[in-house]
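Structure first, sequence second, as always.
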């Protein structure tokens, strides 16, 4: 019988006040995990905290952190661990950089995206993997993009940084596997989130197409003819976080309805 129970586990979920991050936090709590929400808006964190299931008598909490300030993130994590924080599961999830052709991107856009994605991911892993090692159970799941398989038009900075995270993750998966810690990437396609809305609105301004038309075009790119809901990606993340995925390591899992043309 497939074991999806996360009773007794603690999950740290980044970017957990909206979209895929929030859906993931809710799903992991439903499976019995204690959830530590991480985001920069405390009022939104409190709102999500109130929505998390406590059916298994879990204790949920949150950390207010801004990923544009990696030094502050490290201090917050060090203090949280010193205060007794524990972790079995880490979901690295951060909103992507703004869209646009790579030829027009400012250098600072690469620095900022590299900091908020790869550098902060690395800080989180370095702080939390010793806890996973001590627990004899670890799952690190990075929410990135199908662009690591097939670069997406007008997302030049994102395409670049996501690829860096994917290769960092693959390298990490080899190093941490002996400690029963797996590292995997989930690659969402077009998903009904605030970020997708922002991308559609930016394109609308440039092309004079309506946002609804742009969403319809995005949906048509998938063989399934629709845009995903955040909960559909969250379900895949939850599986990778579970005991059932104990021998799944170092892979990219697209959740895009078949849009990506490569295997």
């Amino acid at each position: 019988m497939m074991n999806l129970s996360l009773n007794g586990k603690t999950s740290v979920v980044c970017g957990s006040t909206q979209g895929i991050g929030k859906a993931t936090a809710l799903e992991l709590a439903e499976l019995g995990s204690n959830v530590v929400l991480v985001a920069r808006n405390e009022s939104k964190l409190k709102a999500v905290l109130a929505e998390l299931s406590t059916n298994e008598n879990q204790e949920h909490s949150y950390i207010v952190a801004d990923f544009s300030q990696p030094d502050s993130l490290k201090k917050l994590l060090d203090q949280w661990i010193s205060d007794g924080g524990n972790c079995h599961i880490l979901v690295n999830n951060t909103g992507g950089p703004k869209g646009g052709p790579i030829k027009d991107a400012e250098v600072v856009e690469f620095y900022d995206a590299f900091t908020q994605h790869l550098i902060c991911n690395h800080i989180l892993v370095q702080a939390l993997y010793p806890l996973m090692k001590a627990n004899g159970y670890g799952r690190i799941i990075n929410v990135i993009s199908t662009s690591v398989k097939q670069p997406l038009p007008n997302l030049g900075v994102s395409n670049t940084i996501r690829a860096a995270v994917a290769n960092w993750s693959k390298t990490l998966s080899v190093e941490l596997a002996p400690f029963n810690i797996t590292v995997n990437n989930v690659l969402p396609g077009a998903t009904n989130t605030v970020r997708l809305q922002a991308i559609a609105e930016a394109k609308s301004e440039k092309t004079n197409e309506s946002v609804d038309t742009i969403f319809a075009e995005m949906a048509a790119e998938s063989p399934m003819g629709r845009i995903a809901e955040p909960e559909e990606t969250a379900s895949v993340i939850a599986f990778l976080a579970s005991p059932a995925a104990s021998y799944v390591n170092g892979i990219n899992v697209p959740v895009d309805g078949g849009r990506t043309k490569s295997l």
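Margin note: The chain has two domains: 10-189+229-250, 190-227.
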